[in-house]
Design brief:
Layout: H1 2-13, E1 21-27, H2 33-37, E2 42-43, H3 51-62, E3 67-68, H4 74-78, E4 82-83, H5 92-105, E5 109-113, H6 119-131, E6 135-139, H7 143-154, E7 160-163, H8 167-174, E8 181-186, H9 192-204, E9 206-214, H10 221-231, E10 236-242, E11 246-251
Helix pairs in contact: 1-3, 5-6
The structure holds S-adenosylmethionine.
Residues 70, 72, 88-90, 113-114, 116, 119-120, 139-142, 145, 166-168, 187-189 line the site of S-adenosylmethionine.
Length: 252
């Protein structure tokens, strides 16, 4: 009985927990979009318009149980590795921050990889829908996870393209020659060996003012060093850590 009540209330309450997110600046420039728009040491994002639907969808997705990991992970080569959807998803407070960023920056193209079960994607997509402009390109090579994500994203709106493959193999095919990436969310394999080359591809397709978000920067010492390098890369005008695990960088 108590667990049923908790489950019903969770999507309504969860967005109000830890709403203010600490912002730790690494590089600051008063002319940068993020510095002008996100002054101070905390980000207090608005609640995403579809937060209740997204969180209800996330609960239902998690109830489908563990799903097999993509073969691109070393762990999956050793055996039958699986993950429960809740263990790989962006948390609601960060989802609100992503939706808030989209609503204020009004991007034409948002790129995210990987999609996993579509939870972060739903937050980005909700902001795009609210803006009435832009589209989300989201990449996921795990076909089982991508099929679940597709069902989830559909509930928010049609302004997305889900590519069942890696970002690296497919971005040239789906991004128009004149299009630029305005916001990118790099949330795939969390090692510098993958993240740094992926960032280089994003940078080639970005423009001044584009924002790159990096997830799990505190995942390992390798990722912490990788973030330190990125945070002081002169190709960025401003960089900051959002909460403990997301890095944000604005292209110069
Ligand atoms: C941590 S999960 C993503 C979670 C999701 N962004 C969210 O917050 O709900 C990482 C995902 O990246 C996918 N992936 C790994 N390498 C990739 C690549 N090169 N391109 C696209 N997706 C990739 C994995 O299959 C996995 O589903």
């Amino acid at each position: 009985m108590l667990s049923t009540i908790k489950k019903i209330l969770r999507p309504y309450l969860i967005n109000y927990v830890g709403k203010k997110i600490p912002l730790t600046w690494e590089l600051k420039d008063p002319s940068a979009w993020i510095c002008k728009n996100w002054e101070g040491e905390f980000l207090n994002p608005t609640i995403c318009p579809d937060s209740v639907l997204i969180e209800k969808t996330a609960i239902a997705t998690n109830e489908q149980g563990s799903q097999p990991l993509w073969q691109g992970y070393d762990e999956s080569k050793k055996g039958n590795a699986q993950r429960k959807p809740d263990t790989v998803r962006t948390q609601p407070f960060m989802g609100n921050a992503f939706c808030h960023l989209v609503q204020s920056k009004k991007p034409k193209v948002v790129v995210e990889f990987g999609t996993a079960f579509g939870i972060s994607g739903m937050y980005f997509l909700s902001g795009i829908k609210k803006n009435n402009q832009g589209r989300l390109l989201t990449f996921e090579p795990n076909e089982i996870w991508a099929n679940i994500a597709d069902e989830n994203l559909k509930k928010i709106g049609p302004q997305y393209l889900l590519i069942k493959g890696t970002f690296e193999d497919n971005i040239d095919r789906v991004l128009g020659p004149e299009e630029k990436i305005d916001i990118a969310f790099i949330d795939a394999i969390h090692t510098s060996e993958f993240v740094l080359p992926q960032m280089e591809i994003v940078l080639k397709k970005a423009q001044s003012g584009s924002i790159i978000l990096f997830d799990d920067i505190n995942f390992s010492s390798d990722m912490l060093n990788c973030w330190k390098k990125i945070a002081h890369d002169p190709r960025f005008i401003a960089t900051a850590t959002l909460g403990e695990r997301v890095g944000i960088a604005e292209v110069k």
